[in-house]
Amino acid sequence: MKEIIAKNYSIFFNNDGYDSLSGYLKTCNYSKIFIHLDTNTNKKCLSVLLNKIKISHFETIISRDGENNKNIESCINLWEKLSVLGADRKSLIINLGGGVVGDIGGFIASTFKRGIDYINIPTTLLSMVDASIGGKTGIDLGVLKNQIGSFYDPKMVIIDSIYLKTLHKSEIYSGYAEIFKHSLISGQQLFNNLCSELNSNIIYNDQVIKQSIEIKNNIVLIDQKENKERKALNFGHTLGHAIESFLLKSEKRLLHGEAIGIGIVLASYISHKLFDFPLTSLNLIKDHIHSKYKKVNFSITEITEIIGLLKHDKKNNHGKINFILLKKIGVPVYDVQVENKIIIDSFDYYNK
Ligand code: GLY
Hints:
With 352 residues, the protein is an alpha/beta fold. The chain has 14 helices and eleven strands. It has two domains: 4-165, 3-Layer(aba) Sandwich (Rossmann fold); 168-351, Dehydroquinate synthase-like - alpha domain (Dehydroquinate synthase-like, alpha domain), CATH 1.20.1090.10.
């Protein structure tokens, strides 16, 4: 599969990726190579990578797995390890893991000695189609997601769906929500394809992964710093992130994509109310999300608390909460303020 050209790097697929990485390592002559893993990918993915490519000298640096470890303590731990192991400005970090590994690894790379090189090899569907590309790095602040971070591009991304075999089905579904979101903001063709009866059992294949990455990459190429067009990638995320944060410490806790699935239904409903987003598409989206994810019921007290969390959303400015909505599939509207009453109605629509 042909590579995708991003702004300052390329996204390679399968064995082409390892060939390119071998060549790149020979050319760049890094002083030290660090493979950054979490406890999970250390067990399940490192041996897969080392079967694919021979890296003669490397050290591993390991973070604890899970979103609740995407914090400053994990960064301090990794910066200290890099320092003890003698990392310098000509060192390279290879992130082998999901979004948490990539986001933390990119962030420590962007800050260690004012910035060293890194490469992403995502091992989850979510990080393949979203977190590993686009140059966003970062960590959470308490339960608030991605509040601290930087824009800092990797030197290369390698996508190999072999790693998806190590995942639980729910993790695959979690990544699917971002693929579905990409279909909604890009145009009717991928949306129709994903919603078609014929594909009802297909969650991913290499072609869909590539198409989804192309959609994101094309947006990032226009607007990396999220001044306008990139905001479309946040469709479903305003309420989705608030739901994810709200449930983080509860027994109803959701995976990222499960929360974003709900956020997509809510944002589509609000789009229908405010911008005449077609009812047929709205109902199709709700049915599609309900067919993929378990339904969560929200009480009015919970909804009020979730709305309270919206004030932390990164897209806010001048104290205003900005939603990304759709006029129709593929036509986003940016920075829309929404009354609480419509948000509450959107939960009613989701709950029905
Ligand atoms: N995940 C949204 C973005 O990369 O902009």
